[in-house]
Amino acid sequence: MSTESIADQIKFAYWVPNVSGGLVTSTIEQRTGWDYDYNVKLAQTAENNGFEYALSQVRYEASYGAEYQHESTSFSLALLLATQRLKVIAAVHPGLWHPAVLAKLGATADHLSKGRFAINVVSGWFKDEFTHLGEPWLEHDERYRRSGEFLEVIRKIWTEDEVDYRGDFYRIHDFTLKPKPLNTPERPNPELFQGGNSSAARNNGGRYADWYFSNGKDFDGVTEQLDDLRAVARAHQREVKFGLNGFIIARDTEKEARDTLREIVEKANRPAVEGFRDAVQQAGNSTGDKKGMWADSSFEDLVQYNDGFRTQLIGTPEQVAERIVAYKRLGVDLILGGFLHFQEEIEYFGEKVLPLVREIEGAQTPAGVA
């Protein structure tokens, strides 16, 4: 069995477009803005259309179609203060953040948002973001070892007093954070997400994180990752939830959805996609077992830079809903969705797709089970 338990309902998150260029590296029209006003309206639309989470991206300089970027933690806090229920996850890079400094920021953001702040630890794929800032670019598995310590340290600081930690990357001496983040019935501290696909990422997710974020995968790819991830978690007497990236193209007809995908790929910004491919495929290929992110991604996969097309959430509302529930049956707890035209397509998803997901889930719940 690939999962320890399956929740009654799958959860939904969306990629915050806080960088320019949209979620596909293509010259196709994307009615999406990266500015603050657009994103406030989008966040409010999302929380009113069944989305529980949003993930703010992190890039520090222009790269592969993202010419402009808003910083993730400050942008996440701004969205939290503009919403009522939405949980916003800020992507962060160990090596560019100290865990205690981020823990302090996170505790404040958690109080201001009444317990809705979270972080996604991204070990890094873009070498220039480190070297241009004079920071060392570690070997792949070393980056993940650092991320593991980062996750361990930040949870300790959020939950313990007089923290002492002696690691290879971080040294903490008798440190107490006050105030701590909120301890709510839903979670004892802000949720910790670990991104990645590699064996090192799976090990970190199983040992240290609350959630594991995967790039886009088909059913076999999800099952393979879940088996590894939850074996690690069981070995450490833990459970971890699984989030899956998917680019969602839901249209009234399957032909319209497939035509949209075809146009996105046909209008790909080839130099940008190829540059991105050259930059990221070394990350997956540098692992011993070749299981890293983007190790086997095709050009077409990388037009959506987190392999979102591979999840195949493309078709009519019925087809998309059925595939989402199929992923849930495998053990997926959350779908992280990207869209071509965010505002209108999140409204369409909330109106057309989400009710079907809940209907199918309800029909598959055994009698007498809440």
UniProtKB/TrEMBL annotation:
Q: Where is this region: Disordered?
A: 181-201
Query: In Gene Ontology terms, what is a biological process of this protein?
Result: alkanesulfonate catabolic process
Query: What CDD domains does its record include?
Result: Alkanesulfonate_monoxygenase
Molecular function GO terms recorded: alkanesulfonate monooxygenase activity
InterPro entries reported for this sequence: DMSO2_SphG (IPR024014), Luciferase-like_dom (IPR011251), Luciferase-like_sf (IPR036661), SsuD_RutA_monooxygenase (IPR050172)
Q: Does the keyword tRNA-binding apply?
A: no
What keywords appear on the UniProt entry?
Flavoprotein, FMN, Monooxygenase, Oxidoreductase
Write down the Gene3D superfamilies for this protein, in alphabetical order: Luciferase-like domain
For the keyword Flavoprotein, the answer is yes
- Specify one Pfam family: Bac_luciferase
Q: Which residues cross the membrane?
A: none
The record's section on NCBIfam families has: LLM_DMSO2_sfnG (TIGR04021)
**Can you name this protein?**
Dimethyl sulfone monooxygenase SfnG
Tell me the organism. Answer: Gordonia lacunae
